[in-house]
Amino acid sequence: MALSFETLIEGLFNYSFMGQQTSTQTIRVAFMCVQNAGRSQISTAFAERERERRELKDNVEILTGGTCPADHVHETVVEVMDEAEFDLSGRMPRAITTDELESCDYVATMGCSTLELDTSADVDVRDWALADPDGQKLDHVREIRDEIEQRVIALFDEIEADLE
């Protein structure tokens, strides 16, 4: 049986060099809080780094937003993330919709949300219950940053296992 050119090309896209099927699954992860100006921005930055480190750019989509977004990312958050080699100075808080959240596989709330998703949505919602960095001293914001980093790494360990 002869293969058409289209069938051959499709096969090349669907199988790796070793003949194993490649993963085309995309996992959507959202980090949300009320203002999208602190914890969810920190979470997103660490998630983007983990996605890059683990070479999951084609498999993980990251969303962030707030239910009542602020005008800018908190200055203390920009400062402590700069210490960790992240530039958040150009990021802008944004609103996130229920539809966006219900399309996710994982949603991490930061402890300040009254999130209510449709019960038929198959979303793993986690309330990380983190202190709000707004108005906090730098040392406390660093502690929050470090806690978020560990939680994001643990979440990506789970995501990576889901993709296997």
UniProtKB/TrEMBL annotation:
Domain Phosphotyrosine protein phosphatase I: 27-158
Any one GO BP annotation for this protein: response to arsenic-containing substance
Keyword Chaperone: no
Name this polypeptide is given: Low molecular weight phosphatase family protein
Listed Gene3D superfamilies: 3.40.50.2300
Annotated keywords: Arsenical resistance
PANTHER family linked: ARSENATE REDUCTASE
Pfam families: LMWPc
Transmembrane listed as a keyword: no
